[in-house]
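Write out the 3D structure for:
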Amino acid sequence: MNIQQGAQIIIRDWVQLRSREKLLIVSSRRYQREVDALSEAARQFTGHIDTMILEELSIYAGAYFNGREHAFDAYDAIIGASEYSLITTRAVKRAVSRRKRFLSLPLSTRDGTSMLSYDFLKADTAKSRIMASAILDYYQSASRIDIRTPLGTDLHLCVRGRRAGFFNGCCRDGKGLSSASVEVYVSIVEDRTEGTLILDGSMGYIGTVAAPAAIEISGGKITSIENTPDGQKLKDYIARFEDSRMLTASEFGIGLNTYSRCLGRCYIEDESAYGTFHIGFGRNIALGGVQDAAGHFDLVAHNADIYIDNQMVMEHGKIMILEPHIYI
């Protein structure tokens, strides 16, 4: 798939831009090709297209929009096509509450290929909506999630009072808010996560995990990270934020995209991959939580048994309530 085809999917199917609507694309100069492709696709629907170019913000882009809640007020639709996700910021929360549409489209990749050319963008939004709906039924009035893997993950999360949702790219399905990450998500109670995560998938923006590493969590916060090469990379990444709130477990997600593979090429693809789960850390305001922080990152792992209030929804990475009705 080429970049322009990817841009057309995003504008036509995900944002569903309508005639004469005002569109804002938030990005940076390094992604000028993608901005141009998105703008060209959008011109089929409207002439009201603005771009906001962010430079020198990198991991602090989220904090920038946390302090500028009114930044998107003038627009009907906003695409966050920057290096880092903006989805958990106050500006996004305000925009969606005012019936605007926001699509999180972080373009960060590690293989030199434009994310707009990745095949996972072809995922069937109707199929993922059906998959998500089946899982969301289990979250009704749920209070606890337990996660175990053969490598030794043993995590216990509290979701009491939290409402789950899903992303599949389509803003309409997300009631105005969506992400290129195809997943069921829920904000988790910020001081209640306990246990061990054996990280064997990817570390978000950092890339793939070369060897499994143990991460201990107590009282909702990371208390230790195994001293492996990947563990040290993760420690260094978290330290860059200079914000202890980045240690707080704040989100749980299950990947639903059967086109995605967790290869460390693109963190959005990694956390979307069917058969994976991820724990998000840091800010979760726009996801239904109360945790503010300088940013948000996700750690992805494989082959879990997952229980929601003692009901198994995933076994060894396969969603039991859906098999054999989906095909990989």
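The two ends are 20 Å apart (CA to CA).
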